[in-house]
Amino acid sequence: PLSRYPPLINDISFWLPSETYSKNDFYDLARTVAGDLIEKVVLVDEFTHPKTKKVSHCYRIIYRHPERTLTQDEVHCVHQAIEESAVRELGVEGRF
Question: Which fold has domain 8-94?
């Protein structure tokens, strides 16, 4: 069912660790940390640094609770947990 409550949108970007990284790894990690608070995760930008050849991804995460309006403070805590988990578990280098 669709929620009638407004979404909160936050972006996260980071440098990828290596060729072994998969977008699905990040999707799974975000959903594991935030659960049903995430409505959608979308890769919105991919950038390759011209000198270092490092690759960066930027994801847009749309948060929405099915039964109430979320506050930015609530979402910030969840978003920060996703950032920390991505660094720890996926080996990315944060750009946040």
Answer: Alpha-Beta Plaits (3.30.70)
